[in-house]
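Journal club prep — side note

Before the paper discussion, L.F. wants everyone to see what a predicted structure for a comparable chain looks like in token form. Sequence:
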Amino acid sequence: MKAVTWQGRRKIEVVTVPDPRIVDPTDAVIKVTTTGLCGSDLHLYEVLGPFLDAGDVLGHEPMGVVAEVGHEARELKAGDRVVVPFNVSCGTCFMCRRGLHSQCETTQVHEHGSGASLFGYTKLYGQVPGGQAEYLRVPFADTLPIRVPEGPSDERFVYLSDVLPTAWQAVVYADVPPGGSVAVLGLGPIGDMCTRVAAHRGAGQVIGIDLVPERLARAAGRGVQIYDLNQYGDQLVDAVRDATDGRGPDSVIDAVGMEAHGSAGAKAAQTATGLLPDALASALMQKAGVDKLGALKLAIELVRRGGTISLSGVYGGAADPLPLLTMFDKQIQLRMGQANVHRWVDDLLPLLTDGDPLGVEGFATHHLPLDEAPRAYADFQKKRDNMVKVLFHPDNRAAAA
């Protein structure tokens, strides 16, 4: 089959790899019909190379049709239409039963002290082959895939794999008071969806901050109060406070993560680490790695005293300095973590089958065949061609999408 593979820093190739097969009797194999390119994939493209091997299959936002199931699978059958969550979670362990599927005890990566395995996401998370491919092996066939109805397009449901539950959890964790204010840092796919979820859940004032004109315009078109970081610069915090009764927003969501703009020193450290041999680089990152913390520091400065910060952007540093004096003095609450996909399915699925209040139809800016993945990764990282969200179609039906 064809698959999108990592071959080196900023080097993505579509190559032929062996077809996946049933390994455990509770497995399924799905034929992928649509699969997303996530902002988190860019961390693999740029920063996390020391934890990848050439040929690793990428991607963690797939959906498709079940092609085959193991003989012990009871709930799933060939022909079922499913979305596959990015967490590889068993659904039955202590953590999964408590709605913490990203901490699944069955698939935790003990070698690296990590939580649940993830599809297509480095040795740190199990080195499980990903879903930017024609076919995908899916463990726990009866408890992991999310069955969805026939009829609506794939775009109605594919975001259940990551974008929707990640944004929903980010807003829940932000604990926006009814009618309160929330600022979202970064208006890529997750940040954009966070603004939609926040408004849907009753936020009275939704603020979006970015520096890409097309992303700002897209959010403004749905009623978000936008601030262009390029325009406001050092005056941004004062401007947002002025718009929120002089206090700052009740809640701030950081949807940017480790590769925020700014912090030349951290960028230099990340670049230098990427040039080291993998064994040395991975050890250094796990012990002394640093992130570019511009977005997180902005969130700490922006949020009102007694407010809440929710982190959905991925951070990977082990030695990041935080302004704990400020955080303690402002009595900031902080919540974070990978989304627990299955925990939010019951909240989200009705929003996809009864109207489209979050605007998932048309959320993608680009529909592409799998063969165009190398160009898409490069354009997405450079924010070219008005690219916000990419969906790949392995059967090359992009023109009809």
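L.F.'s comment for the group: The mean pLDDT is 90. Keep this in mind when we get to the figures.
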